[in-house]
Amino acid sequence: MACSFIVAFALFAAPAKTHAAEKTYEIGTDVTFPPFEYANDNNKYVGIDMDLLRAIAKNQQFNVDIKPLGFNAAVQSIQSGQTDGMIAGMSVTPERKATFDFSNPYFDSGVVMATSDKNGVTSLNQLKGKKVAVKTGTAGAQYAQSIEKKYGFKTVTFDDSNNMYEDVMIGNSAACFEDNPVMQYAIKQGTKLKIVTKPANKGTYGFAVKKGQNQELLKKFNAGLANIKKSGEYQKIVNKYLNAKKSAVDDHSFMGILKQNKTFLWQGFLQTMWLTIVSIIFATIIGVIFGLFGVIPNKFFQGLSTTFIYVFRGLPLIVLALFIYTGIPTLIGTKIPAFTAGVITLMLDEGAYIAAFVKGGIQSVEKGQMEAARSLGLPFGKSMRKVVLPQGIKLIVPSFINQFIITLKDTSILSVIGIIELTQTGKIIIARNLEGFKVWAMVAIIYLIIITLLTWLSNWGQRRTKL
């Protein structure tokens, strides 16, 4: 029943497939990979990859719908058919060629090691017994893992570049491996690291589509790339970002960052609240249904309730989110928007918890209440509605408000499928200004304010139910 609900909900909510005549392609990208892709002061996605893609699209007369998902989510979205292509500083490797078709190379790069002045590490030979930071899915991570045993270090994986840099700067890791142009850009923007090796594992970046699909898009990309290289526009775009220096007028104080990004943070907050409210409504409906199934004197419905609660409480939220966003589309052949996938994820996860405390709240009412009602000739349904439920609701209400708080916090996990809620907003801002501590402090304060208000509401609800 739950699986049928997922498919029906996805088919209902998913938009119609784009017609080829419209020549609009959905392109996945990273969110924290400057100078190739990042959000500027106006929260528009810019960088070498973004400008190249737009220039090629203009040259070849097609439109692009940029989906800032994050590297891992972008890879999975293209594999499941959620997006038509991907451009995210993606290195062309034999392993990736087995899954993707790549364009002609549009950038040459290599991997470098960067360290902090504090730890004194200047060569690979000094890494024995130490930890090294890498970013998930990158060429830097692959290179580090390929030499891990040779030099005796241990890799620590992060989802974004800023956290990787911070881990080195605070001394948790001795070094990090990053693509050369990305590391150079970060240092120019004020990251207190230094490059200590020459570029290794040299390779190229390519635009990717799912193997055997979207060949027309791939041909257009190659043709447009050749044209903008010939016109000189390609070199202008690359020089614009590789030679960029940190702006002297940027205010990196706490209030300066808040003032500059208040609109973006507000949008992230609204997305978080909207996602939470919609999800908790659906979770309440499905939770109450399965909770009531658990107290109906019917073994089939009781088993259905127990199975639902067991399965969806047992699955990690991140696994459930990725399965729904990337696995279900492969099964049904229809795209599921990230927001819809997020709502379904929270609906099932939080719905299982709501079902558990609805079931427990009803069962906590003394059995004598039901027996007394039945002895007076009331049928089961009316006894439940008139006698048991009013008493059980008093026990359920505080738990429901607490579940709303948990749902609000759980929305942060959905950044893995590219939903730009409050946590993802923080990552995007940090990619631009590299002020991790200050930005995360802002995000934490916003969450704490909301959760404090909801906690007060929960306490008020508990006092009211005791009256």
Please tell me about this protein's structure.
- The protein is an alpha/beta fold.
- 59% of the residues lie in helices and 12% in strands.
- Strands 7, 8, 9, 10, 11 and 12 form a six-stranded mixed beta sheet that branches. A three-stranded parallel beta sheet has the order 4-1-5. Strands 2-3 form a two-stranded antiparallel sheet.
- Helix 2 packs antiparallel against helix 9 (233-242) and helix 10 (254-293) runs antiparallel to helix 11.
- The model is unreliable at 7-21 (pLDDT under 50).
CATH class of the largest domain: Mainly Alpha
- Fill in the CATH topology of the largest domain: MetI-like fold
Described by the principal axes of the CA atoms, the overall outline is: elongated
Structural class: alpha/beta
Architecture of the largest domain in CATH? Orthogonal Bundle
The Cα radius of gyration reads: 26 Å
Kindly estimate the percentage of residues that lie in beta strands according to DSSP. Answer: 5-15%
Q: Helicity, in percent?
A: 55-70%
Membrane topology: Multi-pass membrane protein
Protein name: Amino acid ABC transporter substrate-binding protein/permease
InterPro entries: AA_ABC_transptr_permease_3TM (IPR010065), ArtM/GltK/GlnP/TcyL/YhdX-like (IPR043429), Iontro_rcpt_C (IPR001320), MetI-like (IPR000515), MetI-like_sf (IPR035906), Solute-binding_3/MltF_N (IPR001638)
Main location: membrane
Write the layout of secondary structure elements.
Elements: H1 2-13, E1 24-29, E2 38-39, E3 45-46, H2 48-60, E4 63-68, H3 71-79, E5 85-86, H4 94-97, E6 100-102, E7 107-115, E8 131-135, H5 139-151, E9 154-158, H6 161-169, E10 175-179, H7 180-188, E11 194-195, E12 200-205, E13 208-210, H8 215-231, H9 233-242, H10 254-293, H11 299-314, H12 317-332, H13 338-363, H14 367-375, H15 380-410, H16 422-433, H17 436-466
Parallel strand pairs: 1-4, 1-5, 8-9, 8-10
Antiparallel strand pairs: 2-3, 6-13, 7-10, 7-11, 7-12
Helix pairs in contact: 1-13, 2-8, 2-9, 3-12, 10-11, 10-13, 10-15, 10-16, 10-17, 11-13, 12-13, 13-15, 14-15, 15-17, 16-17
Signal peptide: 1-20
Membrane topology: Multi-pass membrane protein
Protein name: Amino acid ABC transporter substrate-binding protein/permease
